[in-house]
Amino acid sequence: MADSEEKKYRSGVIRLSKLASIIFIALIVMADIGGYPIARYVTYCWIEKFDIMSLVLTTIIFYVATICGYVVIFSVYKLLSNMEKDIVFDTGNTRLMGYITGGLVACGIACACETVIWPGSIFLSIVVWFIALIVLCVKTAFDKAIMMKDEMDLTI
């Protein structure tokens, strides 16, 4: 693949990823708008609990998870915007990856709190924490690459 074709391909992938991020932002906004009915449905139909405390806890955890979702998805969008500008090995990107990891860990904690009324939510926590681990590994690799780049710049 020629250099210009490769750059065009990468640019297309980034644009599609940014579009997907925008779609996810819209989905989170729609989830926030319909948050109470969604939490009520989950509490009554999935969890099969009919007390007010279960509904309140599920609603609170739902909104905490959407806040975490905003942190993650806006950080992903900003990271993609930086990549589009060819800003790759930059401390700003590793900071964004840190926000993504933090948002995922917080979402996992929120899901783990839901196990009080729905033991099945621990599975969601494990999945979210696994994704956070992957992002943290990529962040660590980026940090190391930035450090090596800085050391190489100093030796030249």
Brief overview, please?
With 156 residues, the protein is mainly α.
What features would you describe in this structure?
This protein has one domain (3-155). It has helices spanning 3-33, 35-46, 52-84, 91-113, 121-155. By secondary structure, the protein is an all-alpha fold. It is elongated, with a radius of gyration of 19 Å. The longest helix is centred in the last third of the chain and has 35 residues, at 121-155. The model has no long low-confidence stretch (mean pLDDT 92).
Question: Descriptors for this entry?
Answer:
5 helices, elongated
Strand and helix layout:
Elements: H1 3-33, H2 35-46, H3 52-84, H4 91-113, H5 121-155
Helix pairs in contact: 1-3, 2-3, 3-4, 4-5
Could you list the spans in which at least 5 consecutive residues all have pLDDT below 50? none
Largest sheet: none
Structural class: mainly alpha
Helix fraction, binned, reads over 70%
Shape: elongated
* Overall tally of structural domains: 1
In DSSP terms (H or I, runs of 4 or more residues), the helix count works out at 5
Number of strands: 0
The ordered H/E elements are HHHHH
Radius of gyration: 19 Å
- For the termini, the CA-CA separation is 32 Å
